[in-house]
């Protein structure tokens, strides 16, 4: 049997975790503003090729930016559960390190989303500026694995 003592620093982990949830809300609000600018109603998830080909050059760009914002949000959702889970697990043994990785991950997600909708980068290449979130996510995975290892052995 393992007795689990949670360090007071785990509070930083909880605050970081809650922050990632607010980040998800930020993504949703951001997508809504791009959706409104593109003139796309719900439940349309993306502007399709027919909508893009029928649009004027200005409207086509708005539809494209909406698609980029929506994809950045989707990528956030695809990765959030893994980052959140490993943040909370890793924080049991290494709370400050876990929280630091979580903060870097969150910052990377913001840079990724803003870059994805950059007016100056084509094909969503601006997102690459935020790709450092992958390193933080790897850190979270390793940190959680080390926590499990230290509890098991």
From TrEMBL:
<feature type="transmembrane region" description="Helical">
    <location>
        <begin position="128"/>
        <end position="149"/>
    </location>
</feature>
<dbReference type="GO" id="GO:0004364">
    <property type="term" value="F:glutathione transferase activity"/>
</dbReference>
<keyword id="KW-1133">Transmembrane helix</keyword>
<dbReference type="GO" id="GO:0016020">
    <property type="term" value="C:membrane"/>
</dbReference>
<dbReference type="InterPro" id="IPR050997">
    <property type="entry name" value="MAPEG"/>
</dbReference>
<dbReference type="GO" id="GO:0005783">
    <property type="term" value="C:endoplasmic reticulum"/>
</dbReference>
<dbReference type="Pfam" id="PF01124">
    <property type="entry name" value="MAPEG"/>
</dbReference>
<dbReference type="GO" id="GO:0005635">
    <property type="term" value="C:nuclear envelope"/>
</dbReference>
<keyword id="KW-0812">Transmembrane</keyword>
<dbReference type="InterPro" id="IPR023352">
    <property type="entry name" value="MAPEG-like_dom_sf"/>
</dbReference>
<dbReference type="GO" id="GO:0004602">
    <property type="term" value="F:glutathione peroxidase activity"/>
</dbReference>
<dbReference type="InterPro" id="IPR001129">
    <property type="entry name" value="Membr-assoc_MAPEG"/>
</dbReference>
<keyword id="KW-0472">Membrane</keyword>
<feature type="transmembrane region" description="Helical">
    <location>
        <begin position="81"/>
        <end position="108"/>
    </location>
</feature>
<protein>
    <submittedName>
        <fullName>Membrane-associated proteins in eicosanoid and glutathione metabolism</fullName>
    </submittedName>
</protein>
<feature type="transmembrane region" description="Helical">
    <location>
        <begin position="12"/>
        <end position="29"/>
    </location>
</feature>
């Amino acid at each position: 049997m393992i007795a689990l003592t949670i360090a007071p620093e785990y509070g930083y982990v909880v605050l970081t975790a809650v922050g990632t949830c607010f980040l998800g809300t930020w993504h949703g609000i951001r997508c809504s503003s791009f959706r409104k600018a593109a003139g796309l109603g719900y439940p349309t998830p993306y502007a399709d090729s027919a909508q893009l080909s029928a649009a004027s050059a200005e409207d086509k760009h708005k539809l494209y930016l909406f698609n980029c914002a929506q994809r950045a949000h989707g990528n956030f959702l695809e990765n959030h559960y893994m980052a959140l889970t490993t943040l909370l697990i890793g924080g049991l043994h290494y709370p400050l390190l876990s929280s630091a990785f979580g903060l870097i991950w969150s910052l990377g997600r913001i840079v990724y989303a803003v870059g994805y909708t950059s007016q100056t980068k084509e094909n969503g290449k601006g997102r690459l500026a935020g790709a450092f979130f992958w390193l933080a996510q790897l850190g979270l995975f390793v940190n959680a694995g080390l926590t499990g290892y230290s509890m098991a052995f």
